[in-house]
Amino acid sequence: MTAFIRLENVSKAFGPLTVVKDLNLEIEKGEFVSMLGPSGSGKTTLLMMLGGFERPTSGAVWVNGKRIDALPPYRRNMGVVFQNYALFPHMTVGENVAFPLKMRKVARAKIAEQVSRALDMVQLGSFAARKPSQLSGGQQQRVALARSLVFQPEIVLMDEPLGALDKKLREQMQLDIRELHRRLGLTIVFVTHDQTEALTMSDRIAVFNHGKIEHIGTPAEIYDRPRTRFVAEFIGETNMLAGQVESVAGDTAQVRLASGQQVRVAASAGLRPKADICFSIRPERLRVGSGDGAQNELDTTVTDIVYHGDHLQLLLRAGDQQLLAKADRSGKIPEAGAPLAVSFSASDCWIVA
Questions:
Q1: I need a labelling partner for 304 at 20 to 30 A (CA). Which of 135, 137, 260, 331 fits?
Q2: CATH 3.40.50.720: does it fit domain 5-230?
Q3: What is the CATH number of domain 237-351?
Q4: Dist. CA 40–CA 145, nearest whole Å
Q5: What is the helix (H) or strand (E) element at residue 323, kind and residue range?
Q6: Which tens digits make up the pLDDT trace of 270-286?
Q7: In what order do the strands lie in the sheet with 78-82?
Q8: Residues 42, 44, 47, 51: is their CA dihedral positive or negative?
Q9: The whole model's pTM is what?
């Protein structure tokens, strides 16, 4: 079955600089896919090619079985939401939302009906007569969202749409957009550099680095089973430990760390003894103290303690390697300089390339 959106061997160069490199991506109808990565990784350029604002240097873009990379934006039936809202300041909210319909020469009576419906979707039904300057940042972003939905597009593209909002409002808008996605069955392609935002909102996340997708998967797959060191370190906090494989038995490998301590980790396919590896373990997977039945226990020294309200972040050292752990405030709080054992399971350790 052919994917609803398909980018096939797509590259984009600006002079000698290639910002998207021979990239392939498939998105199903109704999916919410976030393109996540640092600035300059190619995610926004790929979105612009999908929307028709940039043309690929090579490769093809397909939607619903039709090749569209030569079509102008207005013929692609895609809604677009930008970070800076791009509202017309001299127009009212209703006029801003009506603008795409007027460009499509929709009948006036139909325009009023569709504008009213779109504003109701974003809970701004009573704001049609106001100017953008009379709205808060979150309300302006809702207007931009309503404008992208008013002509009932097949696909909505969002380029860092929440970047200008404060933390509380940003978190509320994340939930609002996710609810609209579910209620309307939209296909959404969302660009962000915020890991938490991508994890909160997405069905799948494509992690970009230097013009390529390093890993695409569900939020749980990206977070718990990252394929590369870049993905592990870019998504949330993690501990990276290096060691040499001593033995492999089934789905578990015995590894000797640089500190001389031995641990068991989840073995990847083809892993062999004497291989030098690097594996990721999330701070919340390190349990303070000796764990009952835990496969691994490391002796560490507490170097610092950081208060985070609902938990404590412990900075630990095991030999030459520094670790982060999260501790419950209700337990016994260790002191800086004190020895501390941490325990964890082999399945919590994931080997990365």
A1: 260
A2: no
A3: 2.40.50.100
A4: 25
A5: strand 321-328
A6: 889 999 999 999 999 99
A7: 78-82, 155-159, 187-192, 32-36, 204-209, 212-217
A8: negative
A9: 0.90
